[in-house]
Write a structure and sequence with these properties.
Layout lengths: L1 H14 L14 E11 L7 E9 L3 E5 L9 E7 L10 E13 L2 E13 L9 H11 L1
Length: 139
């Protein structure tokens, strides 16, 4: 009976997640693949580049950067928001962040402040064939 209890306790201990696998985030992260521009502000102004957002939450972002960014660096990030305002106006997310974790070119940032800005609509170019089709339809 002692062996059974010992085996049961051992198997329950094996089922527990190791401290490395415990989820500590309090906010849900959403996977997203979007380009992002970033630049440092404050004392470390030499950091600037283009990267890619890997996931996003209401508290932070995970970004792959073009260069290593030191822990504690304050960044301004800019990304085109994937949804349109009222179905037709492009938005840009502009955020002030702080680097809270870095692993080579992968950087986790904590959002300090953010705002959405409206962007100009992209002009669609009319090619010659479209222009000819328009002329023929109006004749």
């Amino acid at each position: 009976m002692g062996k059974q209890n010992n085996d049961m306790a051992h198997s329950q201990a094996d089922a527990q997640p190791s401290p490395r696998h415990i989820e500590r985030r309090s906010r849900v992260r959403f996977p997203i693949q979007m380009p992002v521009r970033y630049r440092a502000f404050g004392k470390r102004r030499s950091v600037a580049g283009v990267g890619r957002i890997m996931n996003i939450s209401s508290a932070g972002l995970l970004i792959t950067a073009a260069e290593e960014i030191p822990l504690g660096t304050r960044l301004e990030i800019m990304m085109e928001w994937p949804s349109l305002l009222d179905g037709n106006t492009p938005l840009q997310l502009v955020a002030l962040c702080k680097v809270v974790r870095c692993d080579h070119l992968t950087v986790a940032v904590e959002l300090e402040r953010y705002q959405f800005r409206t962007m100009k609509r992209k002009q669609e170019s009319i090619g010659n064939s479209d222009l000819e089709t328009t002329r023929a339809a109006s004749a």
